[in-house]
Amino acid sequence: MGSLRGLRLAAGSYFRFCERDAFSSLRLTRNSDLKRINGFCNKPQESPKPPTHTYGHRVPLHKPTDWEKKILIWSGRFKKEDEIPETVSFEMLDAAKNKVRVKISYVMIALTVAGCVLMVIEGKKAAKETSLLTSLKLERKLV
């Protein structure tokens, strides 16, 4: 606990130090404009030259397994397994997995709510039965 406090104090003092340095590099001029003092000469910036060659960014592709094909179908990306191409991008596969994950979580939420309602109904039935049994036992003892 003490080391965490010391770490927090050290981090705070470091940020105050950085903040002080940042404000010392700014000074107010007579026109009350902020001017940055950075120690570099003020040469006009030359326009960057366009690259002479272009890079071909290819998205890495992945051959889906049978399970991943089922996930792609369940997520609604494709209607049939025949429509799925030989290779798919990882982004498409991740999006399909996330969609299926969300659908499964919705089903789990619905099952949890249905289970809670069922347990409340069963509990009320059990409470009525126990009250009936206790009244019968009391009548026996009185007779």
From TrEMBL:
Q: What does this protein do?
A: Proposed to be involved in regulation of apoptosis; the exact mechanism may differ between cell types/tissues. May be involved in hypoxia-induced cell death of transformed cells implicating cytochrome C release and caspase activation (such as CASP9) and inducing mitochondrial permeability transition. May be involved in hypoxia-induced cell death of neuronal cells probably by promoting release of AIFM1 from mitochondria to cytoplasm and its translocation to the nucleus; however, the involvement of caspases has been reported conflictingly.
* Listed Pfam families: DUF1075
Q: How does it sit in the membrane?
A: Single-pass membrane protein
Q: Which domain of life is it from?
A: Eukaryota
How would you summarize the oligomeric state and partners of this protein?
Interacts with HSP90AB1; HSP90AB1 is essential for FAM162A mitochondrial localization and pro-apoptotic activity. Interacts with VDAC2; the interaction is probably involved in inducing mitochondrial permeability transition.
Which stretches are transmembrane?
A: 104-121
Q: Name one GO cellular component term.
A: cytosol
Q: Classify the main location.
A: membrane
Which keywords fit this entry according to its UniProt record?
Membrane, Transmembrane, Transmembrane helix
Asked if the record carries the keyword Transmembrane helix, the reply is yes
Q: Which family does it belong to?
A: Belongs to the UPF0389 family.
List the protein's name. Answer: Protein FAM162A
A Gene Ontology biological process term: positive regulation of apoptotic process
Q: Which InterPro entries match?
A: DUF1075
List where in the cell it is found.
Answer: Membrane
